[in-house]
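Need a sequence for this fold. Nothing fancy.
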């Protein structure tokens, strides 16, 4: 009888896996052409400085599936990477971000802000990525110093000698690189020395443990002190509570992002909020 139960369990598991595979396959098909069908939206989450002043934002992509559901990038970005749609989608995100920065450049309340864009390792290592981005800078006329690119440590796992030179040619134009989710991936500290990252983003999993968990506290302090010693800006992501904020301030953190300050908002709402806050200071 136990055997039978075991077999049923296996069958149930197979069906569940099969079901998940089918859903992913359908989503992959649906992703294709999503841009043409206008299914993507840019959201933006504020990044703030020591006095909670907004210094910029991170662009976070949202996908509205044809059936009306909003699907998280944590779910569809890996699928887009598998099928290669990431190149088209990523290009669109960068283009919309550059266009947004150009629009903002005439607006004194928005023009000082920077925008960070997440770029998949897959997307970045495509040989024509940097060339196309450099063209985009010229075509849109964006000030490259307002644009940050977030890469994760997964870029270090790729043994491609062109990565450094691609990063350097973009840096030469003024683009800033941020190392996202720092501490969770292939952290080889030697890469921090040879790749031109100007910003480290402390992963939210470490921030979440502060100030209760002593290991998280030690890791956060170590990242802050190492990053600052290397002359990098260190930003804490996933800050949700005042206690986390205070701990970070006390240990010299100068840049913050998280629900404690602002949720990701649709881009027009982000802009409207900037105008409201600045015209009615409280
Ligand atoms: P990420 O770049 O590390 O972005 C931070 C994620 O944490 C976002 O999730 C954001 O909504 C969430 N977050 C922000 N503050 C808090 C907080 O205080 N608490 C908690 N629990 N979460 C917070 P989201 O928007 O679902 O994005 C997930 C991931 O998807 C991103 O992680 C990024 O790796 C990827 N992604 C998003 N947009 C794009 C894109 O345009 N291109 C690529 N390649 N990847 C993207
Ligand atoms: Mg990011
Ligand atoms: Mg992150
Ligand atoms: Mg992440």
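Here you go.
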């Amino acid at each position: 009888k136990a055997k039978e139960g075991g077999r049923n369990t296996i069958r149930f598991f197979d069906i569940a896996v099969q079901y998940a595979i089918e859903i992913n396959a359908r989503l992959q098909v649906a992703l294709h052409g999503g841009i043409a069908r206008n299914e993507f939206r840019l959201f933006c989450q504020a990044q703030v400085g020591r006095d909670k002043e907004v210094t910029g934002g991170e662009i976070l992509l949202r996908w509205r599936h044809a059936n009306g559901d909003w699907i998280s990038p944590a779910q569809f970005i890996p699928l887009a990477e598998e099928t290669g749609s990431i190149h088209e989608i990523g290009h669109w995100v960068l283009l919309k971000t550059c266009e947004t920065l150009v629009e903002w450049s005439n607006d004194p309340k928005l023009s000082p802000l920077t925008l960070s864009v997440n770029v998949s390792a897959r997307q970045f290592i495509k040989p024509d990525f940097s060339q196309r981005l450099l063209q985009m800078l010229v075509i849109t006329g964006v000030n490259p110093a307002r644009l940050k690119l977030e890469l994760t440590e997964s870029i270090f796992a790729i043994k491609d000698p062109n990565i450094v030179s691609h990063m350097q040619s973009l840096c030469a134009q003024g683009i800033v690189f941020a190392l996202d989710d720092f501490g969770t991936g292939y952290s080889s500290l030697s890469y921090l020395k040879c790749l031109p990252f100007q910003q480290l983003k402390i992963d939210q999993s470490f921030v979440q443990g502060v100030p209760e968990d002593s290991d998280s506290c030690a890791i956060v302090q170590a990242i802050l002190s190492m990053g600052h010693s290397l002359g990098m800006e260190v930003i804490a992501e996933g800050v949700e509570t005042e206690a986390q904020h205070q701990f970070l301030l006390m240990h010299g953190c100068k840049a913050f992002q998280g629900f404690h300050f602002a949720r990701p908002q649709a881009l027009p709402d982000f802009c409207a909020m900037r105008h409201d806050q600045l015209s009615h200071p409280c």
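For context: The chain has eleven helices and ten strands.
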